[in-house]
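Researcher: We plan to redesign the surface later, but first we want a full-length starting point. Tokens attached.
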């Protein structure tokens, strides 16, 4: 049985999280903006927050990261990244199911944003019961997904 855990990120995890982002999301970032190493490192330095991020562990080894924001009316999955060597093993699904259970218990929605080019993640989120509710960002590069059912707008097709 695989043991999936979470531990608080520390400042020492910064380089691990940068390399993880490059491995897990590099192709998606490159497809939209192109991968500029220095720009990505600068962005990481701005957003890395060990006080809010958690490191995903699998059988005690680092395997990914998770950033969840508990907002007044929703749980917002700000970022989940699983290293490609650990993808396809149900780790992300299990973590998201835990968040879905927590949201249900608290009477809240689980909400997240996913890049339009990240089809694999979109499929996972749909399988877990999330729906597209909006597109946003420059050129609508992000899809907002939520457990909240989409508005019944005849012009809106998911």
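Model: Full-length starting sequence:
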């Amino acid at each position: 049985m695989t043991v999936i855990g979470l531990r608080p990120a520390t400042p020492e995890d910064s380089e691990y999280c940068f390399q993880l982002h490059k491995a897990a999301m590099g192709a998606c970032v490159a497809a939209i903006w192109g991968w500029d190493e220095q720009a990505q490192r600068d962005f990481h330095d701005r957003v890395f927050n060990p006080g809010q991020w958690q490191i995903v562990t699998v059988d005690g080894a680092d395997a990914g990261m998770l950033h969840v924001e508990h907002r007044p009316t929703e749980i917002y999955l700000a970022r989940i990244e699983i290293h490609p060597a650990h993808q396809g093993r149900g780790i992300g699904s299990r973590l998201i199911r835990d968040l879905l259970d927590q949201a249900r218990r608290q009477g809240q929605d689980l909400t997240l944003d996913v890049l339009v080019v990240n089809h694999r993640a979109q499929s996972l989120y749909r399988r877990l019961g999330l729906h597209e509710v909006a597109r946003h960002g420059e050129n609508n590069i992000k899809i907002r997904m939520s457990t909240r059912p989409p508005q019944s707008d005849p012009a809106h097709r998911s």
